[in-house]
Fold these 4 entries.
Entry 1:
Amino acid sequence: MIALVAVVVCVAIVLGVYPLVKKSSSKTTESGDSTQLTLSETPTAKNTSNVPSSEDIAAKAEKFNVGIKLYGQSQSIFSSSSKNSLVGEGSGIIMGEDSSKKYTYIVTCAHVISEVKTSGYTMTVTDYEGNNYDGILVGYDSKTDVGVIKIQKTGLTAAEFGDSTTLKKGQTVYAIGNPGGSEFFGSFTKGMVSAIDRPISSESGYEMKCIQHTTPINSGNSGGALMNEFGQVIGINSSKIVSTGYEGMAFAIPISDAKEIIDDIIANGYVTDRPKLGISYAAAEKYQQYAMVVKLKDLPSGSLVIASINSD
């Protein structure tokens, strides 16, 4: 079982009336910025003096790691009033400032932030010093699980991004993120590359080629950095296998593949030139109440339930 590694405190999507369950609200932000993610050349380690220590990499990484918290309205059964409650947490990587020098971009996973748009949640971003900022959704791509947000703050330490195409099996890699959420903020771990371009199917059914690695990651690490032995970010941690009998099988989105997606999202708020159906759906047979409707109405095998309709 492939599990996304964002912390989910409660599940907010409920399938209800057939065939339409809910319509997503449209909450977007301005786009059109020309800022792009820059990939630095990866050094060659001809001798160990060129390679920084793990302590140096950890000290550098903690400054560009952020925590992302999502909040939604919840209502007590004993009161008619509602309050903001924590519904999910993840990690993010400080990319750099926008062209206006008013905002800072943060790269993360789409599944960490998508419910800001689909469910109307709000975001709070926390830096390594414990400062909190309102998170602004720039855009995301569920197909590749890549997302971008921004905060109205500048002067933060940005990550250095490397060329993931130069990775080789057996190389040392490091991860930083927030496993379990803010309680273990900035946890730093070490592993090695197990495989390159490993095909992994996302929840949307799209097959992504990921970096397979042994670096320990857990729920809350989604959107956090995977770094090479020079401390350059070469991947975005996204998922791991959590089934019994599997251990040390984590996956990251290669940053060289994500770059084009990130640049497109910053420029347009979404990935351009891609056909879009505009709905989310599920097989009716997966849900007892809908399976009964299919049987009673003598509907064709393979009938689908429309779970949501995207307003855009």
Entry 2:
Amino acid sequence: MITLNRKTPKEKYNLDLNIRYVKCMHHSGYLNDDFHMNKHDFYEINFCKSSDILFTLGKDTLYLTNGDILIIPPNTNHHFTSSEMVSNYFDIYTLWISNDYFEILLNKLDEINHINFSFQFPSILHTADSALEFGIDFPSLYRISDTYGTLSEAYLCGAVLCLLVKIASFATSCTKAITELQPELINEIIAYIDEHFTDNISLEDLSIKYHISKSCLNSLFQKKLRISCYQYIRKKRLAESVRLIRAGIPFKQVASQVGFNDYSSFYRAFKNTYKISPAECLAQKNEVKP
């Protein structure tokens, strides 16, 4: 297992990325800083056993949680993203498959090329409610990667083939559990909120501005970040409030500056989210996390 933090050199995570056919790794820990990783020339499939973290894939920032499967094709920029809005914890099994071997599999299994899903485009599958037990499959792949000595990679190749078929089957039967990446509208809305969250903006304001119904707007946020639009705005405001409190700004002034109409509603939201009061936050030296 690998813990990423400011004292851990990036080379420790990169490891040996010379992938002949298949390699399976296990990473867990807390992320304190954005962790950048260059795009590579092989396929990467991540299974989140237990995670509460943001992940940037191309232009998209995604929320990863338990049971999510993240598919990253070759030559796609991606990295973990540190955020005050989440705990930044990750327990992830990573499968690396060489481009050459993956192409062989796709050519051998012509049926996969004719389903309504493609491994050649980035996507995230939400499998937490699935009965297919991916939470067993990925750890098993990791365990067998060293079980059979020199034959481990050969065994792993066969097991990966079965897993890819299982993932493809889930993707075609549960289309509502797939997040399509690069939704330009939701990215634009998030960017606007990030710039104006301290203003008196509401769901209705955003609905009018972007010519989209409130229900559709919330649906976009649920698919993108697994939270509602209102929850995203509140998380941004509360995260900023922590910074202002520790900068010595009076509590009532903080509430007003981050967009709350009155101190009582700010206090309740702060206490419900962080389980401590603003005064306790000021007294603490450690990071406050929801």
Entry 3:
Amino acid sequence: MPGRRRFPLAWLGVIPFFVYATAFLLLPSGVVLVGAFKSDKGSFTLKNMSQVIHTPEYIHAFRTSIELSLVTAVGGGIFGLLLAYAAARSGTPRFIRPILTTFSGVAANFAGVPLAFAFIATIGNLGIVTKFLKDQLGVGIYQHGFSLFSFTGLAIVYLYFQIPLMILVIAPAVDGLRAEWREASSNLGASSYQYWRHIGFPVLLPSVLGATILLFGNSFAAYATASQLTGSAVNIVPIIIGQNIGGDVLSNPRLSEALAFGMIVVIAVSMLLYALVQRRASRWMK
């Protein structure tokens, strides 16, 4: 019929994405949202959320999770930015960037049991590096208070996938630093410090902040690596949720959903901040 609007065929390509997002993101989030406010008998209740808010153990778990995420996000952001810039600068050999990008793509997704085992085999109590330092150099890293199975050790392991993720996310922003800006500032008599103070850093700042927020969310939601590496030695929210869901004694699905709802709120806030910052950063990447 004339005048009838036809459904654009281009939308067919994104249907699988919407189906996947609905099945594995929206529906599970909705189940958690409803379950956090339901009792075991199915009636509405605030008991689960009240227990999360007023129990010191759970408050400490959220605090530890946020601290761990902040440390690894800031650390991964700094080192990732420096590596990305070093690979993109004009004086760096061309073969460095493809190698770094390929490695980052693999390392950013290397987590869970394999990553935990790799670090245990490397710098664990009887790890290869640990034994070499002690036998050959007389340096015992565990004799000075360090432990791979502590907050510090877990942060080091998280940096293994946080730094590569930062490299992948920030590389387009680093490419957005045009050579003409550096040449123009140099021709006007600006020093390297003045260039970064008034041009380079202000341009990169929104992207750096956005990428750091993304790293925060990535670390905050990580479970498998921490579970396999530290067990319950480091009190973070994902491990407590796992204990309440899979434990024979401590099983409490409704409480787990209340804890998960708290995590969703934190992640949602971080993603909102990420979206706002990226809107500002996008104008420099056109």
Entry 4:
Amino acid sequence: MLGKLRSVFLVFLAVQACVDIGDDTVDPRLGREGRVRFSGGGCAAGSSTTLAVGSTETLTLEPQPGVALPSDLEAGSSAPAVIEATRGSTVDQVVLEAHRAGEARVELRSGGATWDSLDFRAEPAASVQFYGVPAVFAGGTAYVKVEEVYGACGQDCPLLGRGFLRWSAVPATGLTPLRDAGGVAYFAAGEPGEVRVEGREPSGGALLVEHPVQVVPVADAGAVEARILVALPDQTVLDPQPLPAELPAGSLFLIQLEAPAGDRTVPLAGADVHWTVEGDTSAVEPYGDGSEPPAEGPIFSAVAAGSVDMVANIPLLGRTERYALTITAGS
């Protein structure tokens, strides 16, 4: 569990520069006119131009040196029934939705003319790499993260896109699918017992995710334990450590809560914990970049020196926990 917790920040920070294209290598994400690079999609699929059928992916348009993005830039597709392309929330984003297998040219248009373009494909996903919580308290939130998606030739064929799997649970009374956000599927836990989460490819129904989850009675919960995960200002990610803790201003942090129950440890999802900050409230603030927060909980930013109590209200367990945190001025 601790290794997976540390990977939360590693994944969170890694999106900044996953792909290193050598000078002598043709960049498959560079537009046909050479004006922009269609970037994004994670590390494994950072140079892929193939989407999983049923998936959605938002790519960032990176202008090449000496190029500026036109303010009226719009996105379209030569085959929207295969891959639909629309402009994102900002001019430097394009949203791709893969409806069925095939090929389509994604076109960026300005002033009524094609400004740049790139060819994309869509195919059914053949396998996925995923992680899911091993246990959840009844009434709480369980989750399964799809970390990488692959095509028919395995890891040599990483695919773009998330949010395409059709989720269910056996028995259905154990877990109820809630939503799939950014490749993380959330479930509401119902009756205690062993449950199997299933995630199926939408076009052919292939079973790509099969994951056991134990739903545990709330009455079995022991004392809540907390560990803090810290990303320092230089983006070094420290190993999870117990609280109270000290960290320098400019750091980002996440606090993961869990509770023992019999012979297992049950993590608490971020959706089941409500955080407030007491003390020098100007020292800590929620961190938001517009993306979906990690399933483990919200990320906070240490912005100034001071001492705070991070207060966790846990309605699921009927408890409130306090954790002391000291923010130093740093270097």
